[in-house]
Write a structure and sequence with these properties.
- Aminopeptidase which catalyzes the hydrolysis of amino acid residues from the N-terminus of peptide or protein substrates.
- It is found in: Nucleus, Nucleolus.
- Belongs to the peptidase M1 family.
- Residues 657-804 form the Peptidase M1 leukotriene A4 hydrolase/aminopeptidase C-terminal domain.
- The protein is α+β, with helices and mostly antiparallel strands and 805 residues long.
- Among the domains are: 1-71 and 117-322 and 559-568, Sandwich (Immunoglobulin-like), CATH 2.60.40.1730; 690-804, Alpha Horseshoe (Serine Threonine Protein Phosphatase 5, Tetratricopeptide repeat), CATH 1.25.40.
- Helix content is 33%, strand content 17%.
- The strands form six sheets. The chain has an eight-stranded mixed sheet.
- A hairpin with a 3-residue loop joins strand 7 (219-222) and strand 8.
- Helix 8 (416-431) crosses helix 10, helix 21 packs antiparallel against helix 22 (775-788) and helix 21 (759-771) runs parallel beside helix 23 (794-804).
- The longest helix is centred in the middle third of the chain and has 25 residues, at 523-547.
- The chain is globular.
- The structure holds zinc ion (2 copies).
Length: 805
């Protein structure tokens, strides 16, 4: 039943042998050095061996949560790749295949000598080269395999947790010899299985153990994608040390973090949601089943702010002149890939004093230990769950902070600070309990390659969401999308990364619902707005389907093999590194249309009450498509299912290219209806939000893009009538396309500005500029690229370079 680990160039290998050992907690202790662009320090892994958490067989096609006694959850940091803009521009003239969009760095990934290698060791006791086979070692030593890439591993050692004062209480057999492996492993086993209501004590002991002295160096070796550790004579996972400390350094070119400068010109570094996730930030177990908690101490110069996926709103501690330390932790186990960190000179944006009165109340929920008792209702592994905390379940708005570069402070005050409470409260009214206790929102540097990204306790937003006269609309919808990921993507993760639609389809569908609620629209207004957005998405999806390979249009590409892993727990994510994928929105759009179709079939009220039940059942766990579909269909009386079955949905929606015909008719009707954007009649309340629907403008401009010719006079009057330069980034994007398409030279300056300030969306424009074969446009593209390239996100820069040269 083993799958063959034979990744092609664009597949992403997950090599950690999670079937043998699972990391349960990471303790990171890191220094961030902007001078050398290196993060250096230690990570301590607390492990549990396979005998304790699983039955012998691992591969399974069952829909039940993994065959362990615990359930897991997972999410891949999603860089919402250039969301709702269009694949259209990109594809309208040049088919995907017409030029290579794989960046050079990506090509290197399969190359052993490429720059994705881990540093070949000179120091350490690294010795013989191992093969990566971790399955059957016969009489050889057990190998712990971690996912790791672009890291310089300096030393690996066993941690003597028995040396921690007071730790004796964790030993069940007091007569064990002090200093024995068995004793140390028993202590850790007790520690990792402590009940949820003792989480503070557990966290504290993790911290103390992580600082305990070493008791013997371990052999290690690295290759392109992994770090392998062994202890001489330890032949099974049970004999292998359960607490391991790794000394390591990141590399400036490592792809998990980006070193850049913010909009005020000051240095910063942050995780970008790279396809390789965090394995170039710390050695870890990438497979979704490896759900763990973490804590991290990060030191940086005192002028920097450290933000992180942590449930505490950390404040800095000065540890010496000019240097501060920040400590964060989480108690909800999550995949290591969801960990996010950002270090920069950002300021916290506070509300203006006068406006604070109308902000909804948001008292933090007291986290007294007694509040959290898993009474066996939740289906996940034990942790202090908010769904079990009466105060938390009724909290509409969770505590939140906003960070941004100084120069964007005002923009944040006008938009973000106003929107966050209403979006959070809208989300609560639709789905109930917020799975996370607090939220930081960071306005990321201009080179961030998408409009937003959600991670536990922290959301990254692009500056492009803050601009334009109707900025509340773009900012609000994007915020709602990222907030929705707290439920779909984070609290409920896909068990198999190829089923990305389980987070993106849901977040896209929910963003409209949350946003309508946040604006307090009437049911009719909400429906009108949602249908307009459906129409836009339909347009985009059609275009993407026309211009992408059929293979890439399938939402469940591994079909019945979805969720399979090898005997060791390793697997390969098909197309996980395919650079074409970052341009594809099929998981967002097709997933959205499937959910829209299901919600229509059931009726909104039934669908959303089902969704709340689903969240209650599956939060804290990993799911496959069938978990959702089965539970949904079971909740509908047979006579109302109208022939729908899990199999038919698989066949029509998830395992085929294109899109089922039944929805085409309905959607093309909306297109007819919206052929001319209607002026919208709005009541007084409209002042709070946009005066003119930006979505309507987008649709109008997209329609105009289909025209063969538009005279400069028409374009000038279009610009004047709609004040296009003042519109949000989505609208300006279409406007720039029109400028390029019709060689409207008078407005080339606006294209240049867009390419500099809206890098998350501008990448397609480079393609448009080049494909025109117009010398002046090509010159413009090259000039802008030269200006932006140094600060640009690496993979975007590579893609653009391919287009230009
Ligand atoms: Zn998303
Ligand atoms: Zn729970």
């Amino acid at each position: 039943m083993d799958i063959t680990l034979d990744p092609s160039r664009d597949d992403l290998p997950l090599l950690a042998n999670t079937s043998h050992m699972l990391v349960r907690h990471y303790a990171l202790d890191l220094d961030v050095d902007f001078e050398s662009q290196v993060i250096e320090g230690t990570i301590v892994l607390f492990l549990e061996d396979g005998n304790r958490f699983k039955k012998p067989s691992h591969s399974s096609t069952e829909t039940c949560p993994l065959e362990s006694n615990e359930a897991f959850n997972f999410r891949m940091p999603e860089p919402c790749p250039v969301p709702v803009t269009n694949a259209r521009t990109f594809s309208s003239k040049m088919a995907y295949n017409d030029f290579t969009i794989c960046g050079k760095g990506e090509k290197d990934t399969s190359d052993k000598d490429g720059n994705h290698d881990n540093w070949e060791q000179a120091s350490g006791i690294s010795s013989s080269k191992y093969c990566c086979d971790t399955g059957d070692h016969g009489s050889e030593d057990f190998l712990l395999v971690l996912d790791c890439c672009d890291l310089s591993v300096l030393k690996v050692e066993e941690v003597d947790v028995a040396a921690v004062p007071g730790i004796e209480k964790f030993t069940r057999s007091p007569r064990l010899t002090v200093g024995s492996e068995v004793l140390r492993n028993e202590i850790i086993q007790e520690l990792v299985t402590m009940p949820a209501d003792r989480w503070r004590e557990q966290l504290d002991y993790y911290a103390r153990c992580s600082q305990a002295p070493g008791c013997g160096e371990l052999f290690f070796d690295t290759d392109t994608w992994s770090l392998q550790i062994r202890k001489k004579g330890a032949q099974t996972a049970t004999d292998f040390p359960h607490a391991v400390r790794i000394w390591y350094k990141t590399k400036p070119e490592g792809r998990s973090v980006t070193w850049t400068s913010d909009q005020s010109g000051r240095p910063c570094v942050y995780t970008i949601g790279s396809p390789i996730n965090n394995r170039a930030l710390f050695p870890c177990q990438e497979p979704p089943v490896a759900m763990s908690t973490w804590q991290a101490t990060v030191r940086a110069a005192a002028s920097f702010v450290v933000l992180m996926s942590g449930e505490n709103s950390a404040k800095p501690t000065q540890i010496r002149e000019g240097c501060s330390s920040w400590h964060y932790y989480v108690t909800m186990p999550m995949p290591a890939s969801t960990f996010t960190v950002a270090v920069g000179c950002w300021t916290e944006v506070m509300p203006e004093p006068c406006s604070s009165d109308d902000r909804p109340s948001e008292r933090p929920v007291p986290s007294s230990q007694a509040d959290f008792r898993c009474v066996g209702v939740c289906g996940h592994m034990e942790y202090p769950c908010r769904f079990q905390n009466a105060t938390a379940t009724t909290q509409e708005v969770i505590p939140h902070r906003v960070f941004a570069p100084v120069c964007l402070k005002d923009a944040c005050q006008e938009t973000l600070l106003r929107l966050i409470p209403s979006c959070l409260s809208a989300a609560h009214s639709v789905l109930g309990t917020h799975p996370f206790s607090r939220l930081d929102v960071l306005v990321v540097p201009a080179n961030f390659p998408s409009l937003g990204m959600a991670s536990p306790h922290i959301i990254f937003l692009s500056q492009s969401t803050l601009t334009g006269s109707s900025h509340l609309h773009l900012c609000g919808t994007r915020l709602c999308h990222e907030i929705a990921h707290a439920w779909f993507g984070l609290a409920i993760g896909a068990r198999d990364w190829t089923e990305e639609w389980l987070s993106e389809g849901f977040a896209t569908h929910l963003e409209d619902v949350f946003w309508a609620e946040a604006q307090q629209l009437s049911p009719d207004e909400a429906q009108e707005q949602q249908e307009l957005r459906a129409c836009l998405r339909w347009h985009r999806l059609q275009d993407e389907l026309r211009n992408s390979s059929e293979e890439m249009q399938v939402l469940r590409p591994s079909k019945e093999k979805t969720g399979h892993v090898s005997e060791s727990g390793a697997s390969v994510i098909k197309h996980g590194l395919n650079p074409e994928k970052i341009f594809m929105q099929v998981h967002y759009l097709k997933g959205y249309f499937l959910l829209r179709f299901l919600a229509k079939r059931l009726g909104d009220e039934t669908y959303f009450s089902f969704l709340r039940k689903f969240v209650y059942t599956f939060h804290g766990q990993l799911i496959l498509s069938q978990d959702f579909l089965q539970m949904l269909l079971e909740s509908i009386p047979e006579e109302k299912r109208l022939g729908l079955s899990v199999e038919s949905i698989f066949q029509d929606w998830l395992e085929s290219s294109g899109i089922p015909q039944q929805t085409c008719g309905a959607v093309s009707k909306w297109i007819q209806v919206n052929r001319r954007p209607r002026k919208r009649k709005r009541g007084e309340r409209a002042v709070v939000f946009e005066k003119l629907l930006p979505d309507q403008l987008v649709l109008l401009l997209e329609r105009l893009l289909e025209q063969q010719t538009l005279s400069p006079r028409t374009l000038r009057s279009l610009h004047r009538t709609y004040r296009l330069q003042e519109q949000d980034a989505e609208v300006r994007h279409r406007w720039c396309e029109l400028i390029v398409r019709h060689k409207f030279t008078a407005a080339y300056g606006q294209v240049e500005r867009f390419l500099q300030e809206d890098q998350a969306m501008g990448i397609y424009l480079y393609g448009e500029l080049m494909v025109s074969e117009d010398a002046r446009q090509q010159q413009l593209a090259r000039r802008c690229f030269e200006l932006a390239r140094g600060r640009m996100d690496k993979s975007s820069a590579e893609v653009v370079a391919e287009m230009l040269f």
